[in-house]
Amino acid sequence: MKKILFVYVLAFVMGLMYDYKNLVPRVYHGYCLEAYMYKEKREVIDQGNVLAYKKIVASMKDSAWISPEASFYYSLFMATKFNYAPAYYDVYHTLMTVMDGKGVPSENTKQLAMAFLRRGAALNEERCKKTLAAMH
Fold first, then answer.
1. For the purposes of burial, counting CB atoms within 10 Å of the CB of 30, is it exposed (0-12), middle (13-18) or buried (19 or more)?
2. Residues 42-79: pLDDT tens digits?
3. In this structure, what are the phi and psi dihedrals at residue 114, rounded to the nearest 5 degrees?
4. Burial of 12 (0-12, 13-18, 19+ CB in 10 A)
5. What confidence score (pLDDT) does residue 26 get?
6. How far apart are CA 100 and CA 55, in angstroms?
7. The dihedral formed by the CA atoms of 96, 97, 101 and 102, expressed in degrees to the nearest 10
8. How would DSSP label each residue in 26-62?
9. Distance CA 51, CA 83 (A)
10. Environment class of residue 109 by beta-carbon count within 10 Å: exposed (0-12), middle (13-18) or buried (19+)?
């Protein structure tokens, strides 16, 4: 009985040693992001689908392995091409908080962000109006 148990344990340990790379945690790389939510991304780009846009932004903000600025492209696209008011605030917020990386946005970045904030306020977007009111 002890010999059989010893053989099983030895075979198990040898099996682990043979393919030890499977025990190393996997790291996600950038190419995984291309396929992430492909259908929703196509709907945003082709049709300006608001529900798909909201789903993309929410999932990227909640994700532990996707950086928050990954939704910037879709926010910018929805704001400029489809004139979707909440996307203007998302562009402003991303430019002012995430995109700089140094903690303080440059003057050009601030001017661009303020332009998007004003456009959103002109379209009666509540977050843009509140942010502009708090600045004055």
1. exposed
2. 999 999 999 999 988 888 877 767 777 788 899 999 99
3. -65, -35
4. exposed
5. 57
6. 25
7. 70
8. P---THHHHHTTHHHHHHHHHH--HHHHHHHHHHHHH
9. 15
10. middle
